[in-house]
Design goal:
Distance between the termini: 21 Å
Mean pLDDT: 95
Radius of gyration: 22 Å
CATH superfamily of the largest domain: Nucleoside Triphosphate Pyrophosphohydrolase
Shape: globular
Largest sheet: 6 strands, mixed
CATH architecture of the largest domain: Alpha-Beta Complex
Strand content: 25-35%
Helix content: 25-40%
Bound molecules: zinc ion
Length: about 300
């Protein structure tokens, strides 16, 4: 099976421990527990070039920088006999700021270093980020507007209004992503928010009441005016940046004619195998880039290339 990034099979989430208050209290003070900080939606790293490591605090450093403890800790689970807890390092914390400066800590997007991190760290950082984003955007009950409080190791938020008491759970938004092919060419496009020169597979969020196949057909028709057939599931890729689950598909176009909706995407072309390998296309000045290595878009393209090579 293709192992997706940010979803290591080495980690155990221990959903069964989330209700055990005593256990959670104990590991919060255990010198072996590893605490993973999120800092303004980003992560902390140390090192250079390909030698980048994720910063994990031990209990003594945590106590030094956050003497009042963590608000809303996230019990992430265990790996290699260590327990992991995610938490938010507030940028108002001057002790933490000082520590970051003094230790040459890099604050950056996980996706920049994800592929070079070890699998377990990458997965726990991604989980921390996704959970932290959800916690921050669910401070208040969506039903009655009262404050929510954190329960079950951070995986449930419960409304404080006793007349309401609604439990809120972390959400993941499904999105389809698809490599469209026609004979020996594939369709890639770019959105205005992509890094310069990058062309990728088409993608879009699934709407309520829609099957994955319908979402795929709709998105492709909307974005490039192409009708598709022979939709085949490939793999999934958690993408908690901040809250997506990418569901990868291959599909075939009925024709190569494009009718691009420029409100949705900036550009799209059909690419031959040679063009994909040389990263050059007659309609794109200065060549193009493929999606980042940790993305399912790249895996769709690479898989297609390998099959045609
Ligand atoms: Zn409520």
């Amino acid at each position: 099976m293709l192992q997706p990034f940010y979803a290591s099979s080495e980690i155990n989430r221990h959903g069964d421990y989330r209700n055990d208050e005593n256990f959670l209290k104990k590991i919060m003070m255990d010198p072996r527990t590893k605490f993973i900080p999120v800092y303004n939606g980003k992560n902390l790293f140390k090192g250079f070039d390909q030698n980048i490591n994720a910063i994990k605090f031990d209990y003594s450093l945590l106590k030094k920088l956050l003497p009042n403890g963590i608000s809303d800790p996230i019990f992430l689970g265990s790996a290699n006999k260590f327990y992991y807890v995610g938490f938010e390092l507030n940028d108002q914390n001057s002790e933490a700021k000082k520590w970051i400066e003094e230790n040459d800590i890099i604050i950056d997007d996980l996706r920049k270093y994800g592929p070079t991190l070890n699998d377990i760290d990458g997965s726990f950082l991604a989980l921390t980020n996704g959970m932290n984003f959800w916690q921050k955007t669910h401070k208040f009950c969506g039903v009655c507007g009262y404050k929510n409080s954190s329960k079950e190791g951070g995986f449930v938020r419960v409304c404080s209004n006793i007349k309401c008491g609604k439990s809120h759970f972390p959400r993941t938004d499904p999105a389809i992503i698809t490599l469209i092919s026609h004979k020996e060419k594939v369709l890639l496009g770019r959105s205005a928010r992509f890094p310069e020169g990058m062309y990728s597979t088409l993608a879009g969020f699934v709407e309520p009441g829609e099957s994955l196949e319908q979402a795929l057909e709709r998105e492709v028709l909307e974005e490039v005016g192409v009708k598709v057939k022979n939709i085949k599931y490939f793999h999934s890729q958690p993408w908690p940046f901040p809250a997506s689950l990418m569901l990868g598909f291959f599909a075939e176009a009925e024709s190569t004619e494009l009718d691009i909706d420029y409100n949705e995407i900036e550009d799209a072309h059909w690419f031959s195998l040679e063009e994909l390998k040389s990263l050059k296309h007659p309609s794109i000045k200065n060549g193009f880039k493929l999606p980042r290595i940790d993305s399912i878009a790249r895996r769709l393209v690479d898989t297609w290339i390998n099959e045609f090579r």
